[in-house]
Write a structure and sequence with these properties.
Number of domains of chain C: 1
Number of strands of chain A: 0
CATH architecture of chain A: Orthogonal Bundle
CATH class of chain A: Mainly Alpha
Largest sheet of chain A: none
Shape of chain A: elongated
Strand content of chain A: under 5%
Structural class of chain C: mainly alpha
Oligomer: heterotetramer
Chains: A mainly alpha, B mainly alpha, C mainly alpha, D mainly alpha
């Protein structure tokens, strides 16, 4: 049987992948991918802890409801921002979005 | 549980035990693969014949059997032996992989559809949501396939298909919600069991209408077949597919037709319930075929809509109707009008 | 681009659909006062839906 | 016939699929392949949810992420894509190593802390399971205020994204 620790390790690995993408990638859409991966790592932890509690609690699942909804909205607004950036700059490389630099 | 064979003499009893076990029969023969293939092949013949009769033609005739009922087999053999053409600069792995996964996704939901009290492969507690989750994968698959064929018409058709399915999926779900509220469960077996006294088409008539129209749009049937409008887009998002690829896509589309008609049967028409002189699965299949007939008939009768009107209708009319129906169901349930039928 | 707002509305109502399915599934065992909250949730979403539809149908915006 | 798979094998398979697809999502050359890998990774997470006795959440994950968010991402990719791939997509030297170091440090430290605390954490889940019919009452009864805030968040995000994407005259 997989223990709680094994789930935490998987989630930590997912978080690591997400952080790597967030800090290294230059394409805005890839950065969005990384953010989604990090949110998913958190969700996995919530569900695992809710299951391993004694007695199991539904609250852990309900918070994942809200988390998924918030992540979906974040993706929607983020993609709209990327569209605007593309329209203004004709590039989605985050390092070329430096119009505000003095 | 069957023990694995240890000596050579045990192998034949082992095979017999496996073949006669309930899991094997439900998985492979009755609600499973063989039944699915036969019904889907029958539906392709049935649609051609029905449309021909509507238009005062005869339809398929020469392939053997009464009324040319063996036509689907001839079609299948013909398509398998045709050359599979892959367009120039198409994305090969996606172009070949997506049709296969479409068939897989089309067959997967049948695992939770109950064809009788005990004729169900997986009696999931979240059956209805499982079906919705699986069918919500279709639009992205179609978009990827259309993009992968690297051609103009498929891409336009794919975009149309995406927006149409997206527009009609939400009214469909929300109209199914009132059935879920009446039955108090997402388990399809329990939903059918709750309809023993009264079919849900009576207390939830509006949601039946919304669900029916939305499923017609999901299936890209006339008058909603914009994604494959022949005069404008050749054949829509599967223009570039040929030979075996085309056959696989065709199979997936008819599986989806059968899936939607079975879903309407489960949710609104009382599933397997019927007078006891016929066994339960027969009643179920008969009802599903009647629903399929009503989904096919408009193809011979109506013209198609314009794409922006289509999407506008989905969002402004059907969604509002479905939401209103949720409130009606809340009122019906809390005033206890339906308590005579045990709801 | 003309149909982009419909895609956004789809994402929003996908989430809403999942929320109210969890509520409708156990409607009979939820007290009425709690159900009113969910109805309020739906009513609150009606206003942005109307505004988004008006925006989406206005062809000058896209 | 017993078709149930032992939980260990399920866990290993799901872990492999999820992590490999997550890496592919960030490293694939074509953005479209990245989006598909992301979808596969989400499906893997949904598999974890189902195996952890939260089937409704698993279905929610598939329907919302793979059904809606990935479609939105694909559509945006097709809008902003250009024929030639970006040449300077790869990070500058040193930056990749630094990112890798940071991510590895974080992941290893979290996993290490979890492993250190391991003996105090429960090894096996309790027998009692979570019926999905409990979700609704907790959602509507115990946490009504977050529900209303969620309605406001949804409306705000919808209108905000619409106003952003609108063409200015």
């Amino acid at each position: 049987m997989p223990t709680l620790v094994s789930y935490i390790i998987v989630s930590a690995a997912l978080l690591g992948i997400g952080i790597y993408g967030l800090s290294v990638k230059r394409n805005a859409i890839r950065i969005l991918f990384a953010v989604e991966l990090i949110v998913n790592a958190a969700n996995l932890n919530f569900i695992a802890f809710a299951r391993f509690m004694n007695p199991p609690r539904v609250s852990g699942q309900v918070i994942v409801f809200y988390s998924i909804a918030a992540a979906a909205m974040e993706a929607a607004v983020g993609l709209a921002l990327i569209l605007v950036a593309f329209r203004l700059n004709s590039s989605i490389d985050v390092r070329k979005l430096n119009k505000l630099k003095g | 549980m069957v023990n694995l064979p240890t000596t050579p003499a045990d192998i034949i009893p082992f095979i017999i035990a496996v073949v006669t076990s309930h899991t094997f029969i439900t998985l492979v023969i009755f609600p499973g693969l063989i039944h699915l293939t036969v019904v889907v092949m029958f539906l392709t013949w049935y649609e051609r014949k029905l449309l021909a009769r509507i238009q005062l033609r005869i339809g398929p005739l020469y392939a053997g059997g009464p009324g040319g009922i063996l036509q689907p087999i001839a079609d299948g053999v013909k398509l398998i032996f045709k050359e599979v053409m892959i367009p120039y600069k198409a994305d090969k792995p996606l172009f070949l992989g997506i049709p296969l996964s479409l068939v897989f996704l089309g067959a997967l939901p049948f695992a939770v559809i109950p064809f009788g009290q005990h004729w169900v492969i997986a009696n999931l507690d979240v059956g209805l949501v499982f079906i919705f989750a699986v069918t919500s994968l279709f639009p992205s698959m179609i978009l990827i396939f259309a993009w992968a064929s690297n051609s103009k018409y498929p891409f336009l058709g794919g975009l149309r298909s995406l927006f149409q399915q997206v527009a009609y999926e939400i009214p469909m779900w929300i109209s199914a919600l009132s059935v879920v509220m009446l039955a108090g469960s997402l388990n399809l077996v329990q939903i059918v069991n709750a309809q023993q006294k009264i079919w849900f088409i009576v207390p939830a008539f509006i949601s039946f209408v919304v669900f029916f129209i939305a499923s017609m749009a999901e299936l890209e049937r006339l008058p909603f077949d914009l994604p494959e409008a022949e005069p404008e887009l050749v054949a829509g998002w599967f223009t570039e597919s040929s030979g075996a690829i085309f056959m696989v896509i065709f199979l997936a589309l008819y599986m989806k037709l059968y899936l939607m008609s079975s879903l309407i049967t489960v949710l609104f028409l009382g599933g397997w319930w019927g007078p006891a002189f016929l066994p339960q699965p027969i009643w179920f299949i008969l009802k599903a075929l009647v629903v399929a007939t009503f989904i096919i008939i408009p193809r011979g009768v109506y013209a198609r809509l314009r794409v922006d009107l289509l999407i506008k209708i989905g969002w402004t009319r059907l969604l509002i109707l479905a939401l209103a129906n949720v409130f009606i169901t809340v009122v019906l349930l809390s005033t206890g009008i339906l308590s005579a039928w045990g709801l | 681009m003309q149909y982009y707002p419909y895609l956004l509305m789809f994402v929003v109502f996908d989430v809403v659909g999942m929320f109210i399915f969890a509520w409708g599934m156990s409607f009979s065992i939820i007290p009425t006062s709690d159900s009113l909250m969910v109805v309020l949730f739906l009513v609150l979403l009606g206003a942005p839906l109307g505004y988004a539809l008006r925006m989406a149908l206005n062809r000058e915006n896209w | 016939m017993d078709l149930s798979v032992p939980p260990d094998i399920t866990f290993v398979v799901l872990t492999t699929i999820t992590l490999l697809a997550a890496i592919m999502a960030l490293q694939a050359k074509e953005l479209i392949y990245g989006a598909i890998s992301l979808a596969i990774s989400f499906i893997g997470i949904a598999g974890f949810f189902v195996s952890l006795d939260a089937p409704y959440l698993g279905m929610l994950q598939i329907a919302v992420y793979v059904g809606a968010v990935v479609v939105l991402i694909l559509f945006t990719i097709m809008l902003v894509r250009r024929e030639e791939p970006d040449k300077d997509e790869s990070p500058e030297t040193g930056e990749g190593a630094a990112g890798l170091w940071l991510a590895g440090l974080l992941a290893v430290s979290i996993a290490g802390i979890a492993a250190l605390a391991g003996p105090n954490l429960p090894a096996t889940p309790p027998e009692a399971n979570l019926p999905i019919s409990q979700l609704g009452p907790v959602l509507a009864g115990t946490y009504p205020v977050p529900l209303i805030i969620m309605a406001l968040l949804l409306s705000g995000a919808l209108l905000g994204a619409l106003v952003l994407a609108k063409v200015d005259k």
